[in-house]
Amino acid sequence: MQKIILVMINLPVKTINKAFSYLLPPELQFIRAGWRVLVPFGSRKVEGFVVSTDSGNGDGLKYIIEALDDLPWFDENMLQTAKWISDYYLCSLAEAMRLFIPGKTGLKTSLAYQLCPDLSCNEIEAALAGKSDQYLAACEYLAGHGSASLPQIYKQLTGDCLKTLNYLVNKKIVVKKYSTVKQDKPKYETFLKLAITPAEAEQLLRVSGHRPARRRLLTALLSKGVLAKADLKLLNISQDTVKRSLAGGLIVAEQKRLLRNSYAGLAHEAGAIRLNQQQQQVLQQIMPAVVNRQYRSFLLHGITGSGKTQVYLEVVAAVRKKRRQAIVLVPEIALTSQIVARFQTRFNDDVVVLHSKLSIDERNDAIWRLRTGQAGIVIGARSAVFAPLDDLGAVIIDEEHEFTYKQEEAPRYHAREVALKRAELAEGVVLMGSATPSVESYYQAVRHTHTLLELPDRADGASLPEVELVDMREELRCGRRSVISLALRNLINAAIARGEQVIILLNRRGYSTFVMCRECGHVMSCSNCAVSLVYHKSGRLRCHYCQTSVTPPDVCPVCSSRYIRYFGTGTQRLEDELAKTFPTARMIRMDQDTTGGKLGHDRILQAFAQGNYDILLGTQMVAKGHDIKNVTAVGIITADSILNLPDFRAAERTFALITQAAGRAGRGAVSGKVVIQTYNPEHYAIETGSRHAYADFYEQELSLRQSLFYPPFSKITKLTVTAPEEGEVHRSAADIAAALTSALASSDSTKILGPFVAPIARISNSFRMHILIKSVENAPVRLQLSLLKLHLRADVSIDVDPVNVM
Ligand SMILES: Nc1ncnc2c1ncn2[C@@H]1O[C@H](COP(=O)(O)OP(=O)(O)OP(=O)(O)O)[C@@H](O)[C@H]1O
Ligand SMILES: [Zn+2]
């Protein structure tokens, strides 16, 4: 009997959906479930996650090579959560476990090619007889260099280098060598300290005959305590002096880990805020669960500006007091700085930030601080829900309704659901907050799955802004063709004249949203995707799905007419229009095209918050979460852009967008005003949004959902079938739908819709069809999908509880 460990291989391949057995060498017997290890896998060394141990006959099994960390990465709860993700979202366990590793892997693998050592030159030449010179050239290059990577070889050779190499590998003339290095590269700095007492040092200095450099060193250490490399340079002390003083036992060198942190020092001066009565009542309902280590989930429905963040701070303080840890999730990386500033102001260095735009080094440093107990609060976007914490006391989910909490590529998890699972296992609390809770969460709160908490008023007594709906059909009838209605123009003028600030929202980026031939009606569209191209100010037509760009044609590719015109307004054109209408206003635009880099969004928001600009315009990211007192006017250019999407959540998203955007106005002493431009002023989502009337919206939406058997009354599972050819996608989607129909026939509470052509029928040259399955419970559906092995197919993607059905 030998101890055997079962390892999931960290490779993003759907089909490697099982654990592999390995043996532990004597020196690594301490390894258990939860460790990350390096294992041999085929010809490679790869990262693996130990999921369980077993004992049995180990004949023929390989040994693991090493442990990748000094501690297990996964504790029991994290392992359980990963298993749950793999079951619920139908992905492999390795894919689910990868989510917990910053950068998805702790290793960087590189590949080099080298000549097979057993072959002589003559044998190689004989094997390549009749092949082009390219093959021999590759071998000669490798013979001269020992081994080389693909980019290196690529520089030397002409023609299809990869094809040549693959041929040589197949013929066993060249072998591939994989090597791996650890991604976690802690950075250390050396500090010097006195090894003798200060009194001894002073005594030494009194003795004459010291070199001047040693004198400077001792004097500086006496006054400063420690010296870093940079200090030595300033003091003109050479390495030689340092070495001799070390050898002489006068000083010692100490290594200190340097921490990379681009969010350091955001704390600001702030007077303590006393919770108002409503906030206190809310807190009193949450506290018992925190104090008694109970799993409970709360939905905090508080209007915009009601002081939800203040409640989060108190809950986290109570969790930290219990020496447990907390995760605070925000919907967008762009919004982290503001909340980090508020948390740092309260908790100083106890806060770390984790999100995917940070460098791997920075993320590893943050995790190191968490694991060593130097910090206990994690703030970040959805992936922060996977932070390795050993005693998770609370997860706060700010703006709970945001779709960004759902990952749209595999594994298609929802951070809220993962948070609920982790907290349940850890006996922690989940606090979800929003002014516009998702219909599903609110429904669950009404039915007591979550505890519903309400903050119905703004925290500092301010009132909600007045909202005016502008019917754009009426504008046109009055002969006004500008995208900026008269009412909005007046609002902006008045605000700027008073020195107040304005936010304008338009949900489409680019300059012109489509380009059409007036002669034949042909719309320029992407050659890879079934979507129209967007004209950008850079002078290119761009596809927002596959990122290809082309030069706009002078003549129509269909009818050769020169009558090509640019239609639709994106944020770039709106910026030009605003500049024309308000020539003296200082303006800044924020959308995906302006916000490169990890702090791009933040810088724009900060500059605006500091009053450097009068108008902030941009896509929906301008409307979220921030608290800028001087903003008194908000304009929404087209409230209909989302409403017209073919998605059952279109109304919910429209209501949330209007309410959230309007909620940015009038958060200070001066009350706010909002103008919403629409072609559908009578639509219930827009009408209730303009009144900030969540309850009214919810009631109407809920009865619609019920009559159509949509969530929360059903669960949806979405299948997307893809194929490089149109006929093929129709055939395979029809086959799948037929198989599902018979597999689920016995369940009369299940409805299969489709297959139908996806609203975006083609992306990156792959044709797409959808099948939607509606069911009361999705467990039977998930079971059938996995029995049919659909989760293993490369041409099928499964989205459990999708947030959009496009
Ligand atoms: N008890 C209080 N007394 C006075 N001011 C408060 C109190 N609580 C919060 N505030 C202030 O009210 C403003 C709004 O609070 P906060 O940003 O927490 O609201 P919110 O509910 O998170 O809003 P939103 O959902 O719109 O993001 C902040 O400037 C905050 O400092
Ligand atoms: Zn495209």
Automatic annotation (TrEMBL):
Cofactor(s) the protein requires to work: Zn(2+)
Gene Ontology MF: a single term: ATP binding
EC number of the protein: 5.6.2.4
GO cellular component: primosome complex
Helicase C-terminal domain: residues covered: 551-705
Domain Helicase ATP-binding, residue spans: 289-455
Complex formation: Component of the replication restart primosome.
Similarity remark: Belongs to the helicase family. PriA subfamily.
PANTHER family: PRIMOSOMAL PROTEIN N
Protein's UniProt name: Replication restart protein PriA
Organism of origin: Dendrosporobacter quercicolus
